[in-house]
Amino acid sequence: MATINVALGIDIGGTNTKFGFVDKEGTRVVDSSILTNAHEPAENLVSRVHDEAEKMFQPLKGHYSLCGIGVGAPNANYYRGTVESPPNLQWKGVVHLADLIKHYYDLPVAVTNDANAAALGEMLYGAAKGMKDFIVITLGTGLGSGIVAGGNMVYGADGFAGEIGHTIVDPEGRQCGCGRQGCLETYASAPGICRTVWELLADRREDSTLRSVSPHDLTAVMIAEAANKGDVIARAAFEYTGKVLGMKLADSVAHTSPEAIILFGGLANAGALIFEPTKRWMEEYMLNIFRNKVKLLPSGLKDADTAVLGAAALIWNELLRQA
Amino acid sequence: MATINVALGIDIGGTNTKFGFVDKEGTRVVDSSILTNAHEPAENLVSRVHDEAEKMFQPLKGHYSLCGIGVGAPNANYYRGTVESPPNLQWKGVVHLADLIKHYYDLPVAVTNDANAAALGEMLYGAAKGMKDFIVITLGTGLGSGIVAGGNMVYGADGFAGEIGHTIVDPEGRQCGCGRQGCLETYASAPGICRTVWELLADRREDSTLRSVSPHDLTAVMIAEAANKGDVIARAAFEYTGKVLGMKLADSVAHTSPEAIILFGGLANAGALIFEPTKRWMEEYMLNIFRNKVKLLPSGLKDADTAVLGAAALIWNELLRQA
């Protein structure tokens, strides 16, 4: 009996590591999640994922064949198959993740960062199906990006391309975790919009429910809820976030002229609150030849699916090209 | 007797149209130049280039075979083979340039803009030989750019990618010819550095030979000459140009992570005056993971050669890939 090929997609996060078997149409056959245990060495995580994945796959043997493994991880390097000083994992230095996995599986393995994996997920199964030029922006605790040009993921000379979150809005602007000032992600991200609210609360006199929330407790979700109830400060915060993001996305368009930009992640879930001003300001700041050409789209994948589907898409993309 | 394949490279400028026959190693076998006569329709120019090229090629027949035609032209669209409302030619609307050329030659024809052609020229014959990820920046009357990622020219969804000259330095900055404000090319270009001199002459009190030149007469070459003689204002103008250019190039690096950025054209001929501050500020504004990785290089082609070699490289690049 012919078996159906599936890829194992693994998404390594600071808290959870999700994985699942995905066929080439993007159907998840089965999946699971374990604690990453960020303080443990990578070897332990790989061993635990392998044990659990084997258990899951056992009853599927005979019907399905595993054909490759794709991994999305922070600070992953596609060329080297490594993860290098990830910010939210206590792995030391350069970890040869692909090699660790190949210890268990004699199959093609590819790793890349989460935003690139998300971009490949959108290309194979989501909002960018059939597109050759697009950008995925993940708006979460930071701003990640994956750029696809001419149907190819842009990895750059060193495998680290796609750091749009660290393009500079204002060289004398907000302090960024990267050690510089004024990076886009200090404005356009979940923590970024919180910082904007504090600035607005300082600048303006309007009443706002957000005045009774401590900076420590404030979240982007609260800001969205307040904005939906008409809170002036919250609405102004989305307007400002959209202005800054729209301006910098116009710069990105001037680089690779994408057919679409896909916004994804926590802050993108605010829907029209963030899409409307971002689109409006992107058009405002856009060079005339690109105006009204670039779609601003929500993800075509369900939030829960994206990470694992993206990781699986990474290896499916390679296998399907080789075929 | 076996013949040697050559491509016809044509560079259409506002004043002159240069063309030449180039073999696949980048040797120009023979070349020429005619007046563009920008007020005439494109048909006339193509007909005149064809006549002249035929005359040149006549004595070469038997030794050489023509295998394709590449054209560099302002506002050229690679996908459509068109030139669309070029700023310095009085061609009306959308001109199907590739089709006009195919009327004379039953051969592969490709067109692209001058900066993309320059990038392909550098990749095949110049400073980017062997590189897969690099950016060419042309600093002339404007700032043009050609981006190569993973060995492929980035054309984008519409064929107009690579407009780094129109990324925004300051949304309330200098008026740009494109109708917006604060575009990079209003600072980093030959006219841009002149504008910087006028600003500096207004702001500062130091003596400068440039105070006796009318704005109408001032050129980037004069500023370079004054800077080389130690003129404080002229030196400050290069410093400022390098700062703005370096900051925006750091943004470009965050997009495609190139191995090198090649500066080319009139202003780049100022050498260390422009390279030194640009490199220093680019590193200053660079995200840590990219720091000290990206080379800032002069063109590897002679100025006089670039346009025709680039145009020939466009078609050679296609022919060599298909082979």
Question: In which range does the helix fraction of chain A lie?
Answer: 25-40%
Biggest sheet architecture of chain A:
5 strands, mixed
Strand content of chain A: 15-25%
Distance between the termini of chain A: 21 Å
Description:
- The structure is a homodimer of 323-residue chains.
- Helices cover 36% and strands 21% of the residues of chain A.
- In chain A, strand 12 (260-264), helix 7 (272-284) and strand 13 form a beta-alpha-beta unit.
- The two termini of chain A are 21 Å apart.
- The relative contact order of chain A is 0.15.
- Chain A has eight helices and 13 strands.
- In chain A, the strands form three sheets. Chain A has a five-stranded mixed sheet with strand order 3-2-1-4-8, with helices on both faces.
- The longest helix of chain A has 25 residues, at 232-256.
- Chains A and B meet through helix 6 of A and helix 6 of B.
